[in-house]
Request: fold
Amino acid sequence: QVQLVEFGGGLVQAGGSLRLSCAASGRTFVSYAIGWFRQAPGKEREFVGAISWSDPYYADSVKGRFTISRDNAKSTVYLQMNSLKPEDTAVYYCAGSSGSTSSIYTSYPYWGQGTQVTVSS
Reply:
């Protein structure tokens, strides 16, 4: 089992950058796949990207702008968000799974509490 906590949300102007962190507890973090999702008001939860042992992969909507990395020594996964757009405004969640990465949110049993990202135009 793993517990996840997100940090780093906030308010940023369009074109700006933010880095979100997902800190995990648990000795088995290194074996977990971590996904990032987001949910805007009135919308479905949306896949952003995911990482396990192999290269991360991303939703088309963020490809080239967002980068996911992980530091297993710190039990932390990062989501670097550049060239932010107002449509990136959402609550961002990290999620963990002992299985492989997936773009489907129901594949992840462990979730953080979410962090708000607001991009102003």
Remarks:
- The CA atoms of residues 110 and 118 lie 24 Å apart.
- The first strand starts at residue 3 and ends at 7.
- The chain has a mean pLDDT of 94.
